Input
Amino acid sequence: MRNKAIPGINNKFIVVTALISSLLIKSCTSYAIENSSAHKRSDFPKISYHLTADTTENCLHVSLHIDSPGKEAIDAAIPAWTPGYYQILNYQANIDHVTAKSDSNPALLTHPSSRIWEVASTSAERNSIDISYDVHFTEEGHGFFSSILKAEEKEGYINGASALMYIVGLKNERTSLTLTIPEEWKIATPLTSTSALNSDGSETSSQSFSAENYDELIDSPIQFGKFDETIFKTDGILFRCILIGNHQANKKKLVNNLTKIAHTELQQFGFAPFKNYIFYLHCGGAGFYGGLEHRSSTVIHLSGPIKDGNDDELLSVAAHELFHAWNVKKLKPLGLGPFDYTQKVRSSSLWWAEGVTDYYAELTLVRAGLRTKSWFLNEFAARIADFDSDPARTRVSLEEASLKAWEGHSEGFGGMSYYLKGSLAALYFDLRIRALTNGNRGLEDAFLVLETQYGSSDSGYPETALLDALNITAGASLTDEYDAIINKTVDIDWKRCFVPAGIILSRERSNVFGVELEDTSSVSPVVHHVEQGFPGEIMGMKAGDKILSVNERQALSSQLPEIMSHLAEDSPVRVRVERGGVSIKLEGRIASQYSHAKLSLLPENQLSTTAASILASLFTRRPDHPVKLLESITSTDENINPK
Output
């Protein structure tokens, strides 16, 4: 989602056999999709859903059928969260009128917990169980984390986790879904269609689809109603753009831009983990703005119209969410598929899943010819400045920010964004790898290592796999650097990656007090929050303090920034505050931190051969087939010397 034997190397990764290479060759050249299952299943779906869009009651009627359930008790559950958004959601609050039948007869149904409904066991085998319920809609906007149905606008959207219960113990069973909608409405979903068309070639009002399992089912959103759309094809893959709301899109320009993004990312990986792909573009209206990844689609909610489709917001989010099809959907950390929908699932690798994805989203726009090198450098200079001014950088590591995403609104923890620092870590390691390999490899080649080791696994990679992949790709140990940037809170050594690449980082410092002021019209500024470890806290300042003066100069709200800017770094500072009606004098010393950053390139005639190679490989998509790069990596892995 977007709103970031060598020490550290497991020896089993050192030798990558020709068999694994040939497996990747097959995947890269045929764009094949490998499906795995835990056990053999019949081709006939054991689980089937029938959904009816009720435009009178503005609700969704759901019938869940289980074939040959046996005689044991059956539990049906609604997820506590939706993949890609690490927050507990109360989907059960929108479900009511739950009933059950066993072989067409009423069955005993209990509700043992808020998200579980249990059909009682029987003394004899049963041929079928049917569970029926209604889903009501409370989410604003066009649908995102939840589902919506707006009869007047002829618009509906289903995020499967919010509407489709699963049968405990049977999530891996093949599944079918039928959706009945009003005449003349359409359906768009990446699910495989199993419906026949009308004699005139039009779609029927009831359409059926299939999914390999429950995970695929709910990770395949369904847009239905009357909507606008456009399609394009690149690298043998069909893409659909579903346009919702007041989009005002220039379809030709939109398709041109999205085609360039899709082509660039498909060429980078050399294979597609999907048969087709859908961009759901929701424009305007209330709700969450940003993107949410799904395995063969993404929903992107924009604040305004698309128009010519060249807005930074749209292009960056589109590149980010499409990249997720490889990074977090195909190649995923342990726990992020198959999913446990009952509780918080933690991963220390979310910085890679989101931050590295965010880095490549911006780099993709340059490689696709949609943005310039200067735009990219300015973007990351701004990110460095944001990171420099973030107090959380000194107390929250990327690892902790990832592990505690559930406590940090799915963005990080304690003020540390794994999107922000994760993207900066990606920039660092990308440049370091290119410097160590004279521009012959980059961070994207670490994905090839992950693909050979875990691409055919449905369970995901362990935490140690990321460092292993970086070390193998670099042909040297990056263990200490990884530990410093990912597991600790020390400053990033930018010179180490920028100097070899001919990139110049210029930064300016400014005074910092470490207090956040209330947004108020008060004449005197009022403290809203005091950051740990900064002068304000050290002096004893507290939230609610009214700042009366600084160094005996009256501190008006409009004048405080100017007063602070004229103080010398590390100079004594005397602050008088009013607390509880009492005037208190506080003393300490002012501090400073980097607040502005600029990235630029050395003139071409001053670049070293290595720097020229690094920059050329960084900004230009290489023509090498990924398999050739993999062969180059694996041929040198055994020669890496321990530190």
User: Anything to note?
Assistant: The chain is about 30% helix and 25% strand. Residues 259 and 459 are 31 Å apart (CA to CA). Residues 4-40, 636-643 have pLDDT under 50 and may be disordered. The first strand starts at residue 47 and ends at 54.
